[in-house]
Amino acid sequence: MYNVGGVEFRSVEEASNLILDHLGKDDRLVEYLPEDVHNVQNKRPDISKAAATFGHNPVVTLEEGIPRTIEWMREVYR
Q1: Tens-digit pLDDT profile for the chain (78 aa)?
Q2: CA 20 to CA 27: how far, in whole Å?
Q3: Helix (H) or strand (E) holding 66
Q4: Is residue 51 in some structural domain?
Q5: How many domains does the chain contain in total?
Q6: Buried b vs exposed e over 57-77: b needs ≥16 C-beta within 10 Å?
Q7: What is the pLDDT of residue 40?
Q8: CB-based contacts of 43: which residues, under 8 Å, 6+ apart?
Q9: Distance CA 42, CA 32 (A)
Q10: Residue 56 near residue 47, CB atoms below 8 Å
């Protein structure tokens, strides 16, 4: 199994804000809950296996990728 994620790490709130900013929305309706102690605390992906095997080297930042993903979803799900 390979993890082909990126190497950037953002909190849920930071990722949410990137999405909301792209959509021109604020976070008045968003409630950020404290971390669940039963959840994995470190969500940083280990992409070393994909990098070694396939030369995986992510170059798209979240600031680029989130808007691109939203636009793709708008096209696919319109």
Answers
A1: 887 788 888 888 889 999 999 999 998 989 988 877 777 666 778 899 999 999 999 999 999 999 999 999 999 999
A2: 7
A3: helix 62-77
A4: yes
A5: 1
A6: eeeeebeeebeeeeeeeeeee
A7: 65
A8: 9
A9: 18
A10: yes
- Whole-number Cα distances in Å, 56 to 2, 3, 7, 50: 10, 10, 11, 6
Contacts of 6 (CB under 8 A, 6+ apart): 45, 47, 58, 60, 61, 62, 65
Two structure tokens written together for 73: 């979803």
Domain encompassing residue 59: 12-77
Which amino acid is residue 20, in one-letter code? L
Tokens, residue 76: 């696919």
